[in-house]
Amino acid sequence: xxxxxxxxxxxxxxxxxxxxxxxxxxxxxxxxxxxxxxxxxxxxxxxxxxxxxxxxxxxxxxxxxxxxxxxxxxxxxxxxxxxxxxxxxxxxxxxxxxxxxxxxxxxxxxxxxxxxxxxxxxxxxxxxxxxxxxxxxxxxxxxxxxxxxxxxxxxxxxxxxxxxxxxxxxxxxxxxxxxxxxxxxxxxxxxxx
Length: 193
What we know:
- The protein is of the alpha+beta class.
- It contains five helices and 14 strands.
- The strands form four sheets. Strands 1, 2, 3, 4, 5, 6, 9 and 10 form an eight-stranded antiparallel beta sheet that branches. Strands 7-8 form a two-stranded antiparallel ribbon. Strands 11-12 form a two-stranded antiparallel sheet.
- The N and C termini lie far apart (48 Å).
- The mean pLDDT is 92.
């Protein structure tokens, strides 16, 4: 169950800090890795940043293809997320085939997006050589965004007891993840003066 997300809501898919799966493809090769550091950096047009170490195969493919995608896993994909973040695609071959990861082609760039995730963003790389080299930070303009309507609708996340397996993962280190238990609607406090 996928529904298109308005691009002006795309940053809300990652602004609460979930672990993301970064996919890339170039020159007949593809790869996937987990990244704990990603964030929105601009609303219009929507732009994101993600830290991708310069030594990774994913980074090599991102630079070669000038694009990347973010698939946002839910709680049900914790083991897969930890696995693809712990092994190299450079040495062991195609991680998608090795771990039976099913994908579908993104509508804007044709990048591999991971089935079973709860949100997806396709991004065109914004070249920022200094940030890429000094901080391993890659910037991208979001060209398409989709989300699972069971957990993201009308531009908002909704974490409830009946959708626990779709809650986002938040990496705590060493293969340990947390997930939100519920969401709540806050209100602006009245002036006390």
